[in-house]
Design a protein that fits this description.
With 311 residues, this protein is mainly alpha-helical. 63% of the residues lie in helices and 3% in strands. The chain has a two-stranded antiparallel ribbon. Helix 2 packs parallel to helix 5 and helix 8 packs antiparallel against helix 9. The protein is elongated.
Length: 311
């Protein structure tokens, strides 16, 4: 069997291997080294520059370096002034103890790769397409039992609690939100995932509701169903039922559906992040925010399927 076939077989096996427990507070050193290798394959190998000659890979990492320095509030990522931009970013990433900053490096590099690797920008020295590089990154996360993945539609690293839920609920919902008309909802759902990853669970739930309401508004606007721009989830859901987004003959079978939609994400948000906290500080548990994310994705999927049925 050829070496390429051996690696292909290994990659397929990695995608099938799902760990029972994910970790979120560290990136193993072997995973970090593998990610740097993926950068080399996706961006290409940095080449020597000279008078009038620039390397697109180094150009890319100079910009990544600059953005990271600004974000982290430093003038340089390392104290080795003679390092090229790729080496500087790589060395910082390999040695960074702060998990959030390390994930920020991964997120920015792969976002840049996805956005900028158009045409032949990195064609001459890269050996993997941006999509293949992102797929391998996510496979490596899974291989090491690290509960994160890069979602190209959001250009963000998101936290994964359940591989089944992420693959069968969240990713299909993100595919729907990738449509141009759902741009606002996509941004809000992306912010919810970022808040969740960074432990801001109150903000996560608030943005889940925004994404849910924005999705309904887009569907109503698409079909010219009247609603007020200031409507909350309850009147918006009523508009959907009044215009038979869900067929009448199914309402008896889905008697609890209106209750589920009306008291799912909206109620979580109202009881946690929607109003002032008063004298007692409310600590939102991670599992509640995770439930809100999955419920929001499930509702978006359901509403999309209903819209397809009436179109």
């Amino acid at each position: 069997m050829a070496v390429v076939d051996l690696f292909s077989t290994r990659q397929k096996r990695l995608r099938r291997e799902v760990p029972k427990v994910y970790s979120y507070d560290s990136l193993p050193s072997a995973l970090r080294v593998q990610i740097v290798h993926i950068w080399r394959e996706g961006f290409g190998t940095p080449t020597e520059e000279g008078y009038g000659i620039t390397c697109p890979v180094l150009d890319a990492f100079r910009e990544i370096n600059r953005m990271l320095c600004k974000e982290f509030g430093v003038f340089a990522l390392t104290d080795r002034m003679r390092e090229d931009a790729f080496t500087s970013v790589a060395n910082y990433f390999l040695r960074c103890d702060d998990i959030e900053q390390a994930l920020d490096v991964v997120e920015l590099a792969f976002s840049y790769l996805k956005l900028m690797a158009q045409g032949d920008r990195f064609y001459y020295t890269s050996t993997a397409t941006p999509d293949d590089a992102i797929q391998e990154l996510n496979d490596r996360f899974k291989q090491h039992g690290v509960g994160y993945c890069f979602e190209p539609t959001l250009h963000k690293i998101v936290r994964v609690d359940s591989q089944f839920a992420h693959s069968n609920i969240v990713k299909p919902a993100l595919s729907i939100l990738a449509e141009k008309r759902f741009r606002a909802a996509n941004e809000e759902f992306g912010k919810a995932h970022q808040h969740y990853r960074e432990g801001r669970f109150q903000e996560c739930i608030a943005d889940c509701l925004k994404a849910f309401e924005s999705t309904i508004k887009v569907i109503c606007a698409t079909h010219k169903w009247p609603f007020n721009s200031s409507d909350s989830s309850k009147p918006l859901i009523r508009v959907c039922f009044d215009h038979h987004l869900i067929p009448n003959y199914l309402e008896s079978q889905f008697a609890s559906l209106r209750t589920l939609l009306e008291t799912g994400v909206p109620t979580i948000r109202n009881k946690t992040s929607g109003h002032g906290q008063g004298e007692r500080y409310r600590e939102i548990p991670a599992h509640l925010a995770g439930y809100a994310l999955h419920l929001t994705a499930s509702n978006i999927l359901f509403l999309s399927e209903c819209e397809n049925a009436v179109s």
